[in-house]
Amino acid sequence: MAYMIGVDVGGTFTDFSVSDTKTGALFHYKYPSTPEDPSIAIVEGIGEILKAYNIKPEEVNYLAHGTTVATNALIERKGAKTGLITTKGFRDLLEIGWQKRPSLYDLHKPKPVPFVPTNLICEVSERILHDGSVLIPLDEEDVYKAVNYLKSQKVSSIAVCTLFSFINPAHEQRIKEIVQEVYPEVYISISSELIPEFREFSRMSTTVLNAYLGPVMKKYVYNFEKSIRDTGIRIDPYVTQSNGSIISISETIDSPIRTAVSGPSAGVVGAVYIGEQCKNNKIITFDMGGTSADVSLIENGKPQLSSERLVEGFPARIPMIDIVTIGAGGGSIAYIDDGGAMKVGPESAGAKPGPACYGVGGTKPTVTDANIVLGKLNQKSILGGRFAVHRDLAEKAIKEHICSKTNFDLIQAANGIISVINSSMMRAVRLVSVERGYDIREFSLMAFGGAGPLHACEIASELGIKTVIVPPSPGTLCSLGLLMADVKFDLSRSKIMIAEKQNIKEINEIFDAMLEEGKNMLIREGVAPDRRSYKRFIDARYEFQNYEISIELPDRPVTEDVLEEAIQSFHKEHERNYGYYNEKNRVQIVNYRISAIGDIDKPTLKESPCNPNAALPEPLETRDVLFQGRPDFIKTNIYQREKVAPGCAFNGPAILEEMDSTIVIPPKWSARTDGFYNLILTYNGGEK
């Protein structure tokens, strides 16, 4: 026997997906998260799984997990004490940034505080020009002074970012050598190795964030590896990157910033897989958990990628799946603000003390409490009966914190909480679709996470989306995505040149160098030659523009035909993004990117035959439920989802319960289950 385990660490629960590679069986498990040390919940959860399913530790041949360690360290500012060495005259670059205010209309909102204080930023004399030539040689005496000063300040990490090092890294490499000579125990991150790209502020910011996280991730990796070994599991675990792929856990020590949004990215990978099953390649993912909601867009079966995003107010220039995250989850706390308006989130009750209905110390009303009161959630227990809930405590919290401060009665207050949180999530869906030029009506909404299927239909109907897809075990889709991910390394180089015939030779030289580097990285990961593949991209813009659009190229050397196709693709993308294009303008290439991909064995989910005459099972119970937009409670049948057979079709209202989630099917929605046990919900006035 052999088993694959995917683990997703959430703010409230840690999710597990386990695949038996011999039989194809797939099962899921949830365990309360341990925010003080995420590895505790992982190890204890794995221990329970091994015991419950009689799995021997040595039978586990794959283990991957999405980690929130980097994210939490940045949010809570609990990273390492970090110093920075940069070119003389540029010590204030982190403070100056882009000279943008955090909020255009709020003059009092403070700018984010840099992760390196001014007293730990050291300048050294050196200067490399835009063409890579040396204007001022590196003053090594300056470097020795800087390193000795930072050592005296007891920094745990040093970031190095000098001007134009992405063209000529010689000075940064020499600074690194001196750091390792004088202060060998310190963690070091240099920009020319991490992000050899154009734009100095983004490059410096990313390098600093990476250095800030390095010692934290290094400690976590060692503790996690030891804990896994203590369970008897002998394989080396993987960690999810923000681009949706996996890398060996030891690789994360060098570039922990690449794991900054690793958890949500696994859910998008899982959504792509489910979309293929449903033959649906236009999907908006809606992942709502206990703490946050993550939304992303999949077009033509491919997630949208971003090369940069803000992390705690500072740019992190790393390839990642383009995900919009908002503080809207089942644990989001509702309150009345000073102006008398109801607000929900972003503060969350989290795993501890949790929603009031959990009965473990929480006293403030949350989205989960509102769903309990409205009858959408089981009013006695969740997690398949393993976790008791208390309706009276939910009612008490809403009355004390909402009703007492407004004219709302209990039901109006609970319904208001759901209306507010739904509005927040609709804005996030519009942000990744309508505001980026997509027709939202062409997409299906895929709902997952513990709370996603609770809200999906009501959100979809407000947005004009006609189809909602709910995968089996939606609360653990992120952990399933970890079983579907490949190894991937994203490499980049910057060299600004016009996209024209005479530059083809140099373009190919840049790609060839990255291909060789990518191949070596896959070799280190143990990827066999027949399982390696590569994708090529360029970041292009019209000459004299300031921002680029990414264009994928064929996986072959660039020729005149390939270059011309890329230029035409750029014109089309420019029109879609900005509403116009101009074929007379010269196209300029700024960045060159390679994705080196290693294909990993994945579980195969088998399709079951559909019986169009399959009937619904006997309901577990009938419950009064208040749906959004309805004036009164409706008596609604509650079903066990696992007992709804493939091919079964029925009309709402109905509620389906399973171990990790609850699916709310309002009136005017119909449902059917396909051969993979995906639930396809359609808004059509209730007609099948």
TrEMBL record:
InterPro entries: ACX-like_C, ATPase_NBD, Hydant_A_N, Hydantoinase_A, Oxoprolinase-like. It holds the Pfam family Hydant_A_N. GO terms for molecular function: 5-oxoprolinase (ATP-hydrolyzing) activity. GO terms for cellular component: cytosol. One of its GO terms (biological process) is glutathione metabolic process. PANTHER family: 5-OXOPROLINASE RELATED, HYPOTHETICAL 5-OXOPROLINASE (EUROFUNG)-RELATED. It comes from the Bacteria. This is N-methylhydantoinase A. Residues 5-182 form the Hydantoinase/oxoprolinase N-terminal domain. Residues 501-676 form the Acetophenone carboxylase-like C-terminal domain. Residues 203-489 form the Hydantoinase A/oxoprolinase domain.
